[in-house]
Specification:
CATH topology of the largest domain: TIM Barrel
Number of domains: 5
Structural class: alpha+beta
CATH architecture of the largest domain: Alpha-Beta Barrel
Number of strands: 33
Bound molecules: ligand C2E, calcium ion
Shape: rod-shaped
CATH class of the largest domain: Alpha Beta
Number of helices: 29
Strand order of the largest sheet: 24-25-27-28-29-30-31-32
Oligomer: single chain
Distance between the termini: 175 Å
């Protein structure tokens, strides 16, 4: 059965059912109006039954029934279904004769329907929802015209009732909504006077219903804005503008406070121009505030992003095009955002773009943010180090749509690190490699086993430069030395500063020995050139020791030691020499090391002895003192000369122990001598350095109980060189103890007559070389005379040492020397032998022929 009972858009049964449902009438209780119609219809047509029948999906349901015992039937047996389908009046004179109904249970049952007349109920929307029908158990020929028109009129009345039922219901709903809504619902008549004012309007505008009704609608708008509003209100009733939507206006409350509102108007009434309008008004202050907040949040965020001190960029993860870059980014890249956005790294940076995009790719593949560091050359050529973290973020179109990048400029950090690295590896003053990195490199070279030459360079006279011109000048010389070294070697080598004035050059090339020799002589020649400094011209020189790897050693220690040996030898050869290491040096060094160990043992065992050599008065020939001279008899080698073991003891830090030991021993021995004989002890300049000398001397005197003035100390001129003030200070302290101080080997060292001004020595010992030459050299004789004159003037005795011949003795005595010492009188002898000698010393002295 085709139920599509309306043309066009109404043709749909589903829509018809929806319209029926929308009426809200199905299954509602009986109503008098409807019952009146069915009663009238039945009566007017003289029929037994009548009904207002509504056809829904499955049944016909009777809104009103007259003479019908049941409230509904199934749809398929309903006569009305046919009227609804045809949308026309349906008359069935005798159902038993009609094929459509003859088997219908409503017909076949006891007292069933024979006659039926139904008029379709068509509502204003055009849908047919049911019928007004009458039926009778008796067949009839049809309806008279009058009956037909009565039935149609009643059907129309039923339709009206159904529709007004709907409107009433809508009205009820609307009233409830209007009461309950938080929106103001306001209506005005054609003159703009308020005729409706809901509770929300009372609250919103702070005006009670009574107060609002009858007032002009402009009341809700502040006076200063009323003109604009008047126009809106004036046209509001004119036409229906479904597109108009909401207007934003400013409202005013009874207390004068203003608030933003949203207003939508719809006309109502009979029709233009007599229409009024209804308005729904919403207070949008909260929404506005939220909007404002959101707006300010956004602009805050924008400001943060723009001013972020790190570069921030966003790229599309697919196209890799930049979507945004902040101001720091613009500055870092050196291009304005307009030139960056919309382009890829490849387009922007032809040289590194690909590598940036590769990083993007890695970031896309990774599950968490990735950080990379990269170097970037700006448009202006300045290199920048970036540390960039990339994270994938979701976008509106798809997850992980964007690459978010934050790049920090770590250039300053990297430069600082480089600086630290340089400080760690290079000597700050000269820029050459420092000692630590030299050791590192040397270690690596040795491990690699490659051939190289190592030149150990020591500056000559550098201390003098420092002393004479000051440290800044010294620094300048060192810097220039470093530069000259760099210049003297080819690119196949490098320079390191490994000590105050010690440098090292490493060469890596072919024909090493030859090249090393060339380099060494170039260096010697170059360093021999004067150095210009702010304080004047300085002169230095270089001594060089050379070792070759692998010939001269297989470990760094061995190589360095052998280089030192070669350097030592070079220095022995005189300044400005270079010397290759050789095996003999090694043997000598080993020998020395062995001797050093033995000396250490001998000192510890107290095996260094003292011999004594007498000193005579030139006037009386009497022994006035004896000089203590150290003697060491090595168990294997026999006697070792003090010229050998004293410097050795000095070099290996044993001189203090030894000096103290000998000092005590000398004092002890002297204690057994006649009391007018003094004892002279030689001191090493190094003994002045520890600061313990004065205490040691005092200790030796007190433990041996000799008179302080019986002790003489022999010091050489060299000692004054190091620390002038402290040396003189100690000499004065010694003098204060009552001790005599002699200056030894006078005339060969760095003598300065000013020393005599600073400190009055008790005696001067003329160096043996003058004594040797007094017979043959007039110059020597003149010098001796001058020293004697000085001694007389300053009240110092003059001792001539190393007197071997009578002729020397005679000349020395004649010249005015006050004391004599030498093989002519006595060799150094053992303590016992000396005691013998002193006891048997004839009053006219030893071999006194000249002294008489
Ligand atoms: P020095 O202090 O100038 O000692 C004099 C040296 O000349 C001694 O040599 C002595 O034996 C030697 N001599 C004395 N008369 C003659 C002579 O007529 N002809 C020749 N050819 N030589 C003579 P020695 O004992 O070998 O000492 C050498 C140097 O060793 C000393 O020179 C001194 O500088 C140092 N020395 C010796 N003993 C000690 C010591 O106990 N302490 C320190 N610090 N140095 C010492
Ligand atoms: Ca001496
Ligand atoms: Ca001497």
């Amino acid at each position: 059965m085709d139920l599509s009972n309306a043309p066009g858009s109404l043709s749909n049964e589903a829509n018809r059912l929806a319209a029926l449902m929308g009426l809200g009438i199905l299954d509602t209780p009986a109503e008098r109006d409807f019952d009146e119609i069915t009663r009238l219809a039945a009566t007017a047509l003289g029929a037994e039954s009548a009904a207002v029948s509504l056809i829904d999906k499955e049944r016909q349901w009777f809104k009103s029934r007259f003479g019908v015992p049941f409230t509904e039937t199934t749809r398929d047996i309903a006569f009305c279904t046919h009227a609804v389908a045809s949308r026309d009046v349906l008359i069935v004179p005798d159902a038993t004769l009609d094929d459509r109904f003859s088997a219908n249970p409503l017909v076949t049952r006891e007292g069933g329907i024979r006659f039926y007349a139904g008029v379709p109920l068509i509502i204003s929307s055009g849908y047919c929802i049911g019928t007004l029908c009458v039926f009778d158990p008796v067949s009839r020929p049809g309806l008279t015209d009058t009956q037909r028109s009565v039935l149609i009129d009643l059907a129309r009345l039923a339709t009206d009732f159904i529709e007004s039922h709907r409107l009433r219901r809508m009205g009820e709903i609307a009233a409830r909504v209007v009461d309950a809504t938080s929106d103001s619902v306001v209506a005005a008549d054609q003159n703009g006077r308020i005729v409706f004012w809901n509770p929300a309007a009372e609250r919103m505008f702070g005006r009670a219903f009574d107060e609002a009704i009858g007032r002009k609608i402009e009341m809700i708008i502040p006076d200063h804005l009323a003109d604009d509003a008047r126009e809106i209100f004036a046209s509001a009733g004119a036409e229906v503008t479904p597109e108009a939507g909401f207007l934003e206006l400013v409202g005013v409350r009874a207390d004068g406070s203003e608030f933003p509102l949203e207003l939508s108007v719809a006309p109502w009434g009979i029709g233009p121009p007599d229409n009024g309008f209804a308005a729904i008004i919403r207070d949008i202050s909260t929404r506005k505030a939220l909007d404002r907040e959101r707006e300010s949040d956004k602009s805050f965020l924008d400001t943060v992003v723009r001013n972020l001190p790190a570069m921030l960029f966003v790229k599309d993860a697919e196209t890799r095009k930049y979507l945004m870059v902040n101001r720091t980014g613009e500055r870092a890249i050196g291009k304005p955002a307009e030139e960056i956005v919309g382009r890829t790294d490849r387009e922007l940076f032809p040289h590194y773009g690909a590598s940036y995009e590769r990083r993007d790719g890695e970031a896309i593949a990774a599950s968490s943010p990735l950080t990379f560091e990269s170097k970037f050359i700006r448009e202006d050529g300045r290199p920048i180090h970036f540390r960039t973290t990339r994270a994938l973020i979701d976008g509106p179109d798809r997850p992980r749509q964007y690459i978010l990048g934050i790049s920090e400029d770590v250039t300053a950090t990297r430069l600082a690190e480089a600086q630290v690295l340089r400080l760690a590896h290079y000597d700050m003053l000269t820029g050459a490699l420092n000692r630590a990195s030299f050791n590192d490199r040397l270690h690596r070279l040795v491990q690699e086993g490659e051939a190289f030459a190592l030149l150990s360079i020591d500056l000559d006279r550098f201390k003098a430069v420092n002393d004479q011109l000051g440290h800044p000048a010294g620094d300048s010389v060192l810097t220039q030395v470093s530069d000259r070294l760099q210049a003297a070697i080819t690119e196949s080598g490098w320079v390191a500063r490994v000590g105050g004035d010690e440098f090292v050059v490493v060469l890596k090339c072919s024909r090493l020995r030859e090249r090393a020799a060339d380099a060494a002589s170039a260096i010697v020649a170059s360093i021999a050139q004067p150095f210009a400094t702010e304080k004047g011209v300085a002169h230095a020189g270089a001594s060089i020791g050379i070792v070759l790897m692998p010939e001269d050693g297989s470990t760094t220690t061995q190589l360095r030691e052998n280089a030192d040996l070669a350097l030592y030898r070079a220095k022995q050869m005189g300044r400005g020499n270079a010397c290759f290491f050789n095996a003999e040096m090694d043997a000598a060094a080993q020998d020395r090391r062995k001797l050093e160990g033995d000396l250490r043992g001998a000192i510890a065992a107290g095996n260094i002895e003292l011999f004594y050599q007498p000193v005579l008065s030139a006037r009386t020939g009497q022994i006035t003192s004896a000089e203590a001279l150290a003697r060491w008899t090595h168990t294997e080698r026999g006697p070792v000369r003090p010229d050998i073991f004293i410097p050795l003891a000095e070099e290996c830090g044993l001189i203090d122990d030894l000096g103290q030991q000998l000092l005590r021993k000398a004092c002890r021995d002297a204690q057994t001598w006649p009391h007018h004989v003094r004892v002279a002890v030689n001191l090493s300049p190094l003994q002045f350095l520890t600061g313990k000398l004065v205490d040691n001397v005092r200790d030796a005197i007190t433990t041996s109980k000799i008179r302080a003035d019986r002790l003489q100390l022999e010091v050489t001129e060299g000692l004054v060189i190091r620390d002038v003030e402290r040396t003189f200070e100690q000499l004065e302290q010694l003098r204060a103890l009552g001790i005599q101080v002699l200056i030894d080997d006078f005339g060969v060292g760095y003598s300065s007559l000013s020393y005599f001004q600073r400190f009055p020595f008790d005696k001067v010992k003329l160096d043996k070389s003058f004594v040797d030459e007094i017979v043959t050299s007039r110059a020597a004789k003149a010098i001796i005379q001058a020293v004697v004159g000085l001694g007389e003037a300053l009240n110092m005795g003059i001792v001539a040492e190393g007197v071997e011949t009578e002729e020397q003795m005679r000349l020395l005595v004649a010249t005015g020397c006050t004391h004599l010492q030498g093989y002519l009188f006595s060799r150094p002898v053992s303590a016992d032998a000396l005691r013998e000698m002193l006891i048997s010393n004839p009053p006219n002295g030893l071999n006194t022929s000249a002294a008489a």
